[in-house]
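Q: My collaborator sent me two sequences in one message, no labels, and asked for predicted structures for both. Can we handle them in order? The first one she listed is below.
A: Yes, handling them in the order given. First sequence, followed by its structure tokens:
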Amino acid sequence: MSEERSSAGQTSNEERHTVVPETAVPDGETPAATCPYCDRPFRRARLRDLHVGEMHERRSASDEAAYRDAVKAEDEALFRYHLKVAGALGVVFTALFLLAVVGFSV
């Protein structure tokens, strides 16, 4: 049974769970950057720099430098994310261990 938009304005299950990529620019919003080679709009200049470096072979020296900087920033952001996840897991495991010690000592 497929859900469709009813006259009451309800959206289908598929429409509610649509994933919008971070690079997508919503209607009515002006893009922060546009690819100089294919005119694709981006929400952030860093995303444009990553796109240019990965998708376009012919690029200028300034585009190449911007790509290297964007990759470095992306690596640092990913490292910080991994530290946060590792810290959160450490807190959870410590809490569970303490609860088990208290629970079995009673």
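Q: And the one she listed second?
A: Here it is, processed independently of the first:
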Amino acid sequence: MYKEVNMFAWMSQRITGIFLMFLIPWKIYSGYALTGQVPRIEGLLSSHIVATLDGLLIVTVIFHIAYGLRVMLIDAGIKQEKVLFNVATALSLLLSVYALYYIYWR
């Protein structure tokens, strides 16, 4: 079980990093395009205010940060890796549910 937990955390860190490489520039560019500071790309511009993409961005950032902090704590000498994984996952899920609730149902 120990190796599966580490592998899941490692893979999710890499996958969320790849998603963020595309989602963050998309959000920044489309925001600047709305203000007219960069050329407009119509398909990109209309996606700036799509709640689904905003939710995906927020959930991806939350999980990437949580698992990144887990790795930093392990590197700092905390050896309870499974506990850190469980705490990072639980906090990420709670924050994600709260953020998605705020985006979709407030």
